UniProtKB/TrEMBL annotation, chains A, B:
This is Transcriptional regulator. Signal peptide: none annotated. SUPFAM superfamilies: RuBisCo, C-terminal domain, RuBisCO, large subunit, small (N-terminal) domain. One of its GO terms (molecular function) is magnesium ion binding. PANTHER family: RIBULOSE BISPHOSPHATE CARBOXYLASE, RIBULOSE BISPHOSPHATE CARBOXYLASE LARGE CHAIN. Residues 123-352 form the Ribulose bisphosphate carboxylase large subunit C-terminal domain. GO terms for biological process: carbon fixation. The lineage of its organism: Bacteria, Pseudomonadati, Pseudomonadota, Alphaproteobacteria, Hyphomicrobiales. Pfam families: RuBisCO_large.
């Protein structure tokens, strides 16, 4: 037998008999996808078919059951998308089933090198040894490359540690990728020269399937300090491939656009902790942007705290990924966020600063001071 | 002003005032993602910001409202993933909002060449002028390339028009991609030589981000008659890029694995018609696999019929995509499916035939006869 990993599902079911039947269906659906009586005896049945390892009532006052199903490393075949297929492929189309947890195996550990930087690497690169790291976003779409480069400059001058593209900035005629890359690298570099700081520009490389790796490498060559990918749009193997390449060696930011349906209902998709925490670490992501509680999206404080746990708990020796709550962050909310997160997250502030465009540098300085204090 | 396209959303709201506020939030969120009072006057406000074009109560006995929001071709920037960003990126993380429809524009029509084959092309390639086309799937994972090639041969000998890989078959050591490709092309070719038929082998090219296009071209070079992609895993631009390439010129099958959360709740994600119909046509998909009603998944008859409408209705001149309902199809269900779909769909039968492994060719012949009759 090859090594096995296991996935824990929450299953909605009226009683244990129904839960067991559903769990056995999952074990079949996620692996062989043929009727149980057609599964060939021997290797396929023993090795490839999912094994129901555990079934018990859900805890924490939830209804339903928790099922742990183990799968073979042989089924992964060294392919990350196939790992996701096994974890939740066809069963994602069912309701009353949710992915909650995963235990690792040799096959997964070999396939997924994990975050190259994570929290320790980001602290080293930014020079922020203590207190939260800060990231801002240049936008909106429609500004010229020069205007965006100026915003990046002003953010950097104000002491923001990372300045990323808005996820909607791709290769629009108003700000082509190549021009924006140059303008922002130059703008941030100019500010760093003035301040002696280490602000990094993070380029959004999400784009045409045939160009995404070219953009990643171009970003690196031209001096970007990180790249951003939207995995739900660009595919779930892009970040893993970049993180696994020692030559690439740049921090990777993951953006949640288009990913919403994967976690927004409590009885389908993934738990927040799994999707924005564990999964991102398998994907080799260094910084994971997610919607903050109390902002424009509906995530609760408890869900956000579970994301931070998933991002930073012990997990196969993988580095902790940096959670970056965003989406409606304002100055007024800093105390609330400090209480909720301490220094375990990166503060992502875009719109609230852009609003003070004329005084962007000063607004950034005020934000850095308010978030980091004298740390 | 550039040409504009518009997206129609269903919005859950207690009254028109709330619906309007939510619609205006969407127009902002999907484009500039900064506070309304920070949107620069002129080009950004006039052109890039979404315009609320229409807001009215939902019909068909549904609660809530329907909002039509228009967006600029300039915002797309010739990038399909950015088009999806605009349609539903960040708003996908909200609940009580669902994508229902899209109107096209010059920018979309230039970017998306649509299905190269679609229903007419598939009929021509398979030689099935009338009656449903049939597709089967070789599986399970764990069989050798030779065993899978034998299954492909037997299906072809039995008259199945297309024989596709199971979506879980990637590059496992039991059946490496290259070996399986050869075994299946050879197996199907041998059967075609015996029957004079035109069965095509459809290779699953979903795999590592750095290899997916290589696999597509290898499949073509080695004689596959089509390729299969799981867009929710591999990214949403892969099929569009392949369909747009005149040199590639092979039918593309889209598989729904991992896509479930995008449409399984009625108040989030996409309508079935949009996701499995309109979107697939923009993606250049020729055959779209979706879960049939009454099978292992929870889709209703009405939802499935809406998929067929979305796949085949007039839509910017794009060819109709071939809907392929699968997931638990059996001989017994043929009359019910004929009543529901007529000859507008491709019958996808995997497990029910695999079960009769020893008599796969005869079982396939019986299925073809039962589905197509004397047509």
């Amino acid at each position: 037998m090859m090594a096995r990993f296991s996935v824990t599902y929450w299953i909605g079911a009226a009683d244990e008999q129904e839960a067991r039947a559903r769990a056995l269906d999952i074990a079949l659906e996620q692996t062989v996808e043929i009727p149980r009586d057609a599964v060939p005896a021997g290797y396929v049945e023993d090795e490839i078919l999912g094994h129901l390892e555990r079934l018990e009532p859900a805890l924490d006052g939830r209804s339903g059951f928790v099922a742990e199903i183990s799968y073979s490393d042989d089924d992964i075949g060294g392919d990350f998308l196939q790992l996701l297929n096994i974890i939740f492929g066809n069963s994602s189309i069912k309701t009353n089933i949710r992915v909650e947890d995963i235990s690792l195996s040799e096959g997964i550990l070999n396939l997924c090198s994990g975050p190259r930087f994570g929290m320790p690497g980001l602290r080293e690169r930014t020079g922020v040894a203590k207190g939260p790291i800060l990231m801002s976003a240049i936008k909106p779409v429609g500004l010229s490359a020069q205007e965006l480069g100026r915003l990046a400059h002003d953010f950097a001058l104000g002491g923001m540690d990372l300045v990323k593209d808005d996820h909607g900035l791709v290769d629009q005629r108003t700000s082509p990728f190549v021009d924006r890359l140059k303008a922002c690298v130059d703008g941030v570099g100019e500010a760093n020269a003035k301040t002696g700081g280490r602000t990094a520009y993070v380029a959004n490389i999400t784009g045409p399937a045939t160009q995404i790796f070219d953009r990643a490498w171009m970003a690196k060559e031209k001096g970007a300090g990180g790249v951003m990918v939207a995995p739900a749009l660009a595919g779930y193997d892009v970040t893993r491939a970049l993180a696994a390449d020692p030559e690439f060696n740049l921090p990777i930011v993951s953006h949640p656009t288009f990913a919403g349906p994967n976690m927004i209902t409590p009885t389908t998709g993934f738990s927040h902790r799994f999707y924005f925490g564990l999964l991102q670490r398998l994907m080799g992501v260094d910084v994971v942007v997610y919607p903050n509680f109390g902002g424009r999206f509906g995530f609760t404080l408890a869900e956000c705290q579970s994301i931070v746990r998933g991002a930073q708990m012990e997990f196969g020796g993988y580095k902790p990924v940096v959670p970056a709550p965003g989406g409606g962050m304002t100055f007024e909310r800093i105390p609330e966020m400090q209480a909720a997160y301490g220094e375990r997250v990166m503060y992502l502030v875009g719109g609230a600063l852009i609003r003070e465009k004329a005084n962007l540098t000063n607004a950034s300085k005020r934000l850095v001071a308010a978030v980091r204090g004298n740390a």
